[in-house]
Amino acid sequence: MAKKVQPAPIAVHITALEMTAPPKQSLPVPVNVHTAILAAPDIPLAFYRFLYRQVGSRWHWVDRLRMDDETLAATIHDKRTSVSVLYVDGAPAGFFELLRIDDDTVELSHFGLFERALGHGIGKWFLLQTLYAAWASGPKRVTVTTNSLDHPRALQLYQMFGFSPVGTQDAELVPLSEAELAALAKRDCPMPADRR
User: Fold this and answer.
1) What pairs with residue 18 in β-bridges?
2) What pTM, to 2 d.p., does this model score?
3) 153, exposed or middle or buried, with CB in 10 Å at 0-12, 13-18, 19+?
4) Residue bearing the bigger pLDDT, 64 or 181
């Protein structure tokens, strides 16, 4: 019997950032593509996991994929959490997730684009729309964390839109194992029932 190999941990440098005033930038809607951003209250778990994997697989997002259904539902269906989906030319192309921590603070928990949406000039515009949504409820600050496994320009982009670093730390991330990936594939694409 083959021995199950657990992937080696990856060293990660994490940067926490916050902004204390809404963005001042204004960007036009990208041209030559049709875009829509739709809130997804009570988003189905399978759709959420699809979005999370499409955006995060390149950047080693694993936390939400390790949650069982009950834990994930409690997390993303919490009344303080909102998930919004970006559609480009009619198909999902990214998402953002906000968490209202308290009256003063909104956290940008997740943000990103599908690979197919890159190169269309959408990224900065979508981040700006995300920040407008984060500030819509009138917090005193918006926070986000990024790390050394994220897009190489993520930290620079957040700072360009008004975030300032407020702390750093080092951690380790354990990538998904082959067994975890197989379990995810089985859960996401169950075999059809025998129809005899």
Assistant:
1) 143, 164
2) 0.87
3) exposed
4) 64
